[in-house]
Amino acid sequence: MAAPAVDVREVTVRYGEVLALDGASLRVEPGRVCGLIGMNGSGKSTLFKTIMGLVTPEHGTVAVDGGSSARARRAGAVAYVPQSEEVDWSFPLTVRDVVMMGRYGHLGLTRRPRRADHEAVDAALERVGVAPLASRQIGRLSGGQRKRAFVARGIAQGARVLLLDEPFAGVDRDSEATMVRLLRELAAEGAGIVVSTHDLHALPELADEAALLMRRVLLHGPTAQVLRPENLAMAFGLGLDGRAEP
Amino acid sequence: MSALATTAVDLLVDPLAYDFMVRALLTTLVASVVCAVLSCWLVLIGWSLMGDAVAHAVLPGVVLAYVVGAPFALGAVVFGFLAVGLIGVVRDTSRVKEDAAIGIVFTTLFALGLVLISVTPSQTDLNHIIFGNLLGVSWPELTQVMVLGAVVLAVLLIKSRDFTLYAFDRTHAHAIGLRPRLLGAVLLGLLALTAVVALQAVGVVLVVAMLIIPGATAYLLTDRFGRMLVLAPVISASCAVIGLYASYYLDTAPGGTVVLAQGAAFALVYLASPRHGLLGTRWAARRRRLRRERAAA
Ligand SMILES: Nc1ncnc2c1ncn2[C@@H]1O[C@H](COP(=O)(O)OP(=O)(O)OP(=O)(O)O)[C@@H](O)[C@H]1O
Ligand SMILES: [Mg+2]
């Protein structure tokens, strides 16, 4: 059997005083979509950053695509679609320029794209359905199109592990359905995908499995089971300090 | 040739009869082009204040280099990195926010430079470093400006795409196995070198203008980074030439006049740029409204 796409074990992460993850474990196999749910501040983005090697855990281990996170990154195996707030949407780049950045890891000193790179970018743009908008400035896309452009970057990169931080925030139902279809296709081709989301409606269609996060993974299993009201209450009904939310 | 054209040519050629004007022109041209290219990244990363800080903080380095007879560039780079390091330390290990940390560190280092100047006996007036001495640039100084400028431009252009990726999405740079911290450090090193180039022209105090205005002006004109990289140096070099000639005929401070020309160019673009200018966007909105009204009628 292939190595897990993501294998996080007993990871603890602290930002100064703040304990963001406390013994979190998550294992996602290739070909599966895992929905990561949890309230604001539960550590979803931190878990992604840990998988990416952007924060160093105090305890615990991280494996990506069967090796260390650093090895997976060098191999171009892991792609990250950031939360919208993290992107400067007025940056003077076209959609095509952004997707081309997925190829940089494969390119030489000056990152001058070759014909194969242009073809990979064209194919990726086509695949996510933003090809007609390729020469627009990146901010001149709708919320859903922006997200798909970033997924296209991951496709152009050839990533086998896709991490998407809240891809449905500020996205209408149509775009959401398009994105769900796209991610399902990519999983069917063997990608391991982790999606953090507050949008529980989309989850049953999107995700094979779901994980409830609250500094650690409280529950991880088939989506339908995790979404049972009593289980959701466990993650959303209680505040971070253990008291009930108002 | 008509009399008018002859006069115009005379106006342009006359000053160049003086050797010092030729050197001044070459120095401002090199400085303005190098600064302008770098400024495209600085304004997009949001490093304007950092540019100001590094430009000021190199002063003690330059003075010390002068004292021990080392190249100015070395002193500048050492103090440029020292400044950035200290800013990081103050920001990360105290409750002081980044802008305050920058303000504290660069003014202190600048003050150190002023104090060092006041105790350094020297033939050449070190005060020229502060306000620039465009008309007094020597051939060796010009050579240094050209060499440093060429090095900075070469690195910027070779790693252009990496720096743009760094400016746009550091996380992605990290995700594909590049080293964003290294890229950032290289950019800061280039910033310190550029400060040395530009302080010959306009002095430490006005370097930041050349490091911000051209990039900001070009950013108002286009949505393509590649075009910014062309527009910024063209605008900046034009302003440098216009400013230098204006200072010659109006008998004003050359460094200050060059920066004034850049400021004026920004103001013009800010008002009139079709895409992102004040009037341009108003007019576009008006046209859209009229079109809607006409369609409705
Ligand atoms: N850079 C940081 N410095 C200090 N604390 C941080 C930092 N980033 C996150 N935190 C804290 O760590 C905890 C987890 O944050 P994280 O961003 O991972 O949550 P999240 O589940 O992604 O939340 P959201 O749904 O709002 O995106 C929060 O308490 C947050 O305040
Ligand atoms: Mg988050």
Description of the structure:
The complex is a heterodimer of chains A (246) and B (297). Chain A contains 9 helices and 9 strands. Chain A is an alpha/beta fold. Chain A folds into 2 domains: 1-77 and 160-246, Rossmann fold; 89-158, no CATH class. In chain A, 46% of the residues are buried. Residues 239-246 of chain A have low confidence and may be disordered. Chain B has 14 helices and no strands. Chain B has a single domain (11-296), classed as Orthogonal Bundle (ABC transporter involved in vitamin B12 uptake, BtuC). The mean pLDDT of chain B is 91. By secondary structure, chain B is mostly helical. Chain A binds chain B through residues 52-54, 70, 73-76, 78-80, 82, 86-88, 91-94, 97-98, 101-102, 104-105, 109-112, 137, 153, 157, and chain B through 44, 158-162, 164-165, 167-169, 171-178, 219, 222-225, 227-228. Adenosine-5'-triphosphate is lined by residues 15, 18, 20, 38, 40-46 of chain A. Magnesium ion binds next to helix 1 of chain A.
CATH superfamily of chain B, called what?
Answer: ABC transporter involved in vitamin B12 uptake, BtuC
- CATH architecture grouping of chain B: Orthogonal Bundle
Rg measurement of chain A, Å: 18 Å
SSE order of chain A = EEEHEHEHHHEHEHEEHH
Our count of domains of chain B comes out at 1
Q: How many individual helices of chain A?
A: 9
By DSSP, the count of extended strands of chain A is 9
Sheet with most strands of chain A: 6 strands, mixed
Secondary-structure-based class of chain B equals mainly alpha
Please report the first level of CATH classification, the CATH class of chain B. Mainly Alpha
Head-to-tail CA distance between termini of chain A: 46 Å
Order of helices and strands of chain B: HHHHHHHHHHHHHH
The percentage helix of chain B is over 70%
CATH fold description of the largest domain in chain A: Rossmann fold
Oligomer: heterodimer
Mean model confidence by pLDDT of chain B:
91
Determine the strand fraction of chain B and express it as a percent band.
under 5%
Q: Which architecture of the largest domain in chain A would the CATH scheme give at its second level? A: 3-Layer(aba) Sandwich
